Sequence to fold (365 residues):
Amino acid sequence: MTVSHPLTTAARPAALPQRPLRIAILGATGAVGQELLQLLDERRFPVAELRPLASPRSAGQTLAWQGRSLTIEPVTEEAFDGVDLVLASAGGSVSKQWAPLAAAAGAVVIDNSSAFRMDPSVPLVVPEVNPEAAFSHGGIIANPNCTTILLTLALAPLAARRPIRRVVVSTYQSASGAGARAMEELQRLSRTVLDGGEPVSEVLPHSLAFNLFLHNSPLQPSGYCEEELKMLNETRKIMGLPDLRLTATCVRVPVLRAHSEAVNIEFAEPFPVEEARQLLARAPGVELLENFEANRFPMPTDVTGRDPVAVGRIRQDLSDPNALELWLCGDQIRKGAALNAIQIAELLRDPAGLTAATVSAGGAA
Ligand code: NAP
Fold:
């Protein structure tokens, strides 16, 4: 299949070649970049050549990968010569500058930033939810926002059974969502507070040590922040539900790694709890973790460094006979970013994997 794309000049095959690939990681020194390197190794992704790219600050430094020492290069047009796949995680402005050039040079770019997510001609893909979308790319595929990926994994299997009327979600987002330097800052400022000092933040807008604050992405005239609107707009696009009603409150919490979400889902009709539990227990990418007797439900530490999104405490909303409540935790550097990107690349190499993963969303009421 070939698809023309406004961001690239030439038609191209949608699938990735079967041979080992020449891969560039744009943002290789960052939190997501480091996870990408680890996952390529863990998942035995066939790599012919690996080019770590980062800012001029890191250029010339080396990093170890599969027993080799790789030199970090700055980003230039030549850096994408002969590259089959670019895994980009260096922020929106860097992706806007380089992703179209890399795609025009023949690479498939899987971009972790928000730069192209809402571009109607760029697919926004969660392989367990809308794998078929990956094949409509014209050189660039967007990896969704991390909180959105985690949420859609839980929503899609339920929406496939009964139409969703409205979603209300509150997030508890870890420091790692703001990158490697934010993780270091949380650790450093926590020590400062424990030592009786005054924590002064430089990376995040406030100290996260023994504190929390509303997500610091830019506020919109509506009073919502960008992160909250990403959850609305990206969930609609991924699930193919342009009229889905969803409202979010996003909060940064003093957790080092892995995000949590409290989710209220109103359906068009009552949804028996046990049915929802069974659907989620066998949904791809989801792990049911609930023990009501022991009051034991997902925690960020349960999912740190792991692939599945843990879901639990599924219960009837006592205020609405058509609504369910649930709680979920997921490692957002992994499934919320790096793993999702690599799963997209795996899908493009093996389209047969598409049917195994598909969960089609039923619709919105
Ligand atoms: P990070 O830890 O701050 O890493 C940023 C990376 O980008 C570093 O490798 C940095 O290189 C590189 N970079 C910065 N400016 C550059 C430039 N001008 N040219 C080339 N490289 C440059 O950030 P992150 O958390 O990994 O996030 C990276 C992207 O993924 C962002 O768009 C973010 O929104 C998205 N994302 C992050 C998460 C998450 O949980 N962290 C989840 C989903 C999506 P240097 O080390 O040389 O500065």
